[in-house]
Amino acid sequence: MASAVLSVANLCKRYGDTVAVDGLSFAVRQNEIVGLLGPNGAGKTTTINMILGVLAPDAGTVKIEDIDLAKRRSQALDRTNFVAVYSPLPGNLTVAENLRFFGLIYCVPHLRERIEVLLDQFDLARFRNVKCGVLSSGEQTRVSLAKAMLNRPRLLLLDEPTASLDPSVARDIRATIRESTLEGHSGVLWTSHNMHEVEEVCDRVLFLSHGKILLEGDPRKLPAEHGKENLDDLFIAVAREPLSLGAG
Amino acid sequence: MKPKRAAAIVLRQFYLLRGSPARILPMFAWVAIDVVLWGFITKYLNTVASAGFNFVPAMLGAVLLWDFLVRVMQGVTTAFFEDVWSRNFLNIFATPLSIVEYVGGLVASSVATSLVGLSVMLALATLVFGLSFFVYGLMLVPFFLVLFLFGIALGIFGCAVVLRLGPAAEWLIWPLPAILSPLACVFYPLSALPGWLQFPARLLPPSYVFEAMRGTVSGGAVSGASLTAAIGLALFYILIAGWFFTRIFRYVVQSGLIARYSAESLS
């Protein structure tokens, strides 16, 4: 079995009386894309924020390639990158400026060449000197994806990366991510509300409900195992009737 | 500590300045207005006051030195505000960038931008109003050093306050130098303050600079020990400000404020 690029153990986060994440444990292995699914408020973004080091857990550990995030933050985050629809890159910098800025922060070797490769890969060459703020939301997502690939991360966190893309571009982006995951020995944690996308891309899914993992398995087999026709139905069941699926 | 990461913050400031006259103008415009205003005031005072005392080095020099401190502080806070205004905290703090590298980058940005302001101030004051900095002699080195260090400390403190209280708190930070200026004794000697205000004034490093500056202009002795104490005090404030920023950062990471940093979520 491939080694884990992400190991999360007994992760907990509480906001006052509200338990956002409740003893979460899972792993993401090399060359694996894991879908983190669940209704709004299930704890997906809280979990991703804790893995990104921008939210401290109340208990539990996050290890990226066996590096404890709490103890060696810089080294752990050096191996990570992310895209989130709610966190676009600064709109007052051009595409090339943003990539150079973040490339320096990640100390990317041969940065100039790396930027050229990514501009081509994400079809951004013509926007090189355009400020990110004037790009369409789909183009901004592609810039964010290029930024996320700058340091060839061992762990890539994608929070609804294709939410603002048209189906054609979304399909290309999924293929690109899939390809680089398989080639680069990295692992991906992917959240999405598009169950067709999840079926197409993810090797394994984790269904979260009230901060706990309710279901886990192959997205193509899981619905049938729980008497549902497809992943959409299973998602709705998790959101509306978690007790019928084993929560509690 | 990887200098390349701190350099990224400086490069970002350069990119922003390069493409924005609205950012370049304030670097020297307000300074130039201050120098012109106080230049004419001091010239006028020279004509109405008793002969023998030159107000230009005493008052215009004080304005210039104080403006330098303000520029340094605002250099740090403005670089930080760029991340506030562009809602960039999640992108920035989910990277390997450490607090020391980030704050180091803010300080380095401030050095670059405040040097631009200082150059304009010196040129105007010298060419238009005949202020020669040779009047202060070598004392100018500790003067600028103390004001630079204290400006950095104030800037880091201001960033920490905004990080904790949210974007709207920037309006608490802009007037910070004006609030401190009466105690910094920019235009009058420490002895002009009532006794109970002299103690807090002595806790501010700039008050030693302006006392020494007036001493130099009037030909009196300047205490090297007091300027050394001011340098030590300013370094102490940088340490305190750095500790404060780190504490605030840990708090916002613990509470989740940094992950949802916006005026709406924090007000």
Strand content of chain A: 25-35%
Oligomeric state of this protein: heterodimer
- Separation of the first and last Cα atoms of chain A: 31 Å
Category from helices, strands and their pairing of chain B: mainly alpha
Would you tell me the overall average pLDDT of chain A? Answer: 90
Order of helices and strands of chain A: EEEHEEHEHHHEHEHEEHH
**CATH architecture grouping of the largest domain in chain A:** 3-Layer(aba) Sandwich
Strand order of the largest sheet of chain A: 6-7-8-3-9-10
Bin the strand percentage of chain B. Answer: under 5%
DSSP helix fraction of chain A:
25-40%
CATH homologous superfamily classification of the largest domain in chain A: P-loop containing nucleotide triphosphate hydrolases
Q: Biggest interface and its residues per chain?
A: A-B, 34 and 31 residues
Please outline the major beta sheet of chain B: none
Number of strands of chain A: 10
Q: Kindly state the mean pLDDT of chain B as a whole number? A: 89
What is the number of helical segments of chain B per DSSP (H or I, 4+ residues)? 12
